Amino acid sequence: MKMYGNWRSAAAFRVRIALKLKQIPYEETFIDLDAGDQHRPAFRAINPQGAVPALFDGDGPPLTQSLAILDYLEETKGGVRLLPEDPRARARARSLAQVVACDTHPLYVPRVRTYLMEAYGLPKERMMDFVRHSFTTGLETLEKRLGGEPGTGRFCQGDQISHADLCLVSLWVGTKIFAVPTEPYPTVARIAEACLALPAVAEAHPLRQPGAPQG
Amino acid sequence: MKMYGNWRSAAAFRVRIALKLKQIPYEETFIDLDAGDQHRPAFRAINPQGAVPALFDGDGPPLTQSLAILDYLEETKGGVRLLPEDPRARARARSLAQVVACDTHPLYVPRVRTYLMEAYGLPKERMMDFVRHSFTTGLETLEKRLGGEPGTGRFCQGDQISHADLCLVSLWVGTKIFAVPTEPYPTVARIAEACLALPAVAEAHPLRQPGAPQG
Hints:
Two copies of one chain form a homodimer. By secondary structure, the first copy, chain A, is of the alpha+beta class. Chain A has two domains: 79 residues, Glutaredoxin (3-Layer(aba) Sandwich), CATH 3.40.30; 117 residues, Glutathione S-transferase Yfyf (Class Pi), Chain A, domain 2 (Up-down Bundle), CATH 1.20.1050. Chain A contains nine helices and four strands, in the order E-H-E-H-E-E-H-H-H-H-H-H-H. In chain A, helix 1 crosses helix 7. The radius of gyration of chain A is 17 Å and the shape is globular. Chains A and B meet through strand 4, helix 3, helix 4, helix 5 and helix 6 of A and strand 4, helix 3, helix 4, helix 5 and helix 6 of B.
């Protein structure tokens, strides 16, 4: 497979983990989001939205949107299962994934950060209040649910890693990049550490990808 | 089934359409978002995130997050299929759904609108610039993709209604509520009208629910 991604992208990180866990060979082309490569015609022809990741599986059209890609990989490829069999457990794993991928991550992507600074004239540090608020709201929801719902195990849903964990760890890594305090979220922290202890997750880590800052 | 929703909620609208298309009997309890009922302990016990919809299927725990609920209904209930069989077509339908449910709708929910006004002291009309920008960005992506990709038919993916259309029409109805211009999006408009022509969609329409403004 061929993936267009970016070292920092939380959405590309989720897909990269799934590809590695399922042992699917892939090559990743890095789109330089800071240089605006996502807006150039060459990439807009791949994804008119100008967002990573985009994944090619053979000759078909590009697959886009990280959760849609994760479901596609789940439905078409073998290897480790990343959604539980039981429909209610699947629904819970997906719901937790969407707390991150719908209600948290889209609020702090570059497009939104740029808009807030340009349209409202906010200096970067004031704009970052919104980023941290978005992270904190998502982390609070995850902590309450994971700490209070009986479905939680070693991972978000029971003892097997699922889409929920791929999303959770992508948010967790973002707290380091954006300097978001994490002390109030011990259950989220425990599960993130369980994910990061897996070689596939560690290898997929943003800071281990080309283009990432060194040291 | 028992659903907690709100007349204005785009996410509740999506689930309401699916329940009606699949002819699943349900009762809806309206949570008054303007009065802050989503923050009260009684509702937080149902969904710690304080978001609608929440759906009860029998005695199980509440199902939350609209896309996770749609997948659950698809996997466990009969009736009209709302995702195509072919994995690539499914992935495209899901990707289009997520353009709305991940990258557009979460940016203009009450929580975000309130934050922008309170934290940045923006008057309502200035805050609304962000709301309209979010709608416009989502609509532009949908128009480019639906107008340019061969998978588009009478509906977003071929000639059968799918999760993509449920999300699209939920965004479309929002353009009326938030006074967002829609002239530049003829393909989106065509598909939204095709959806609204279905009795199940018309009956699920926000303005036909209890609590909605009259006339």
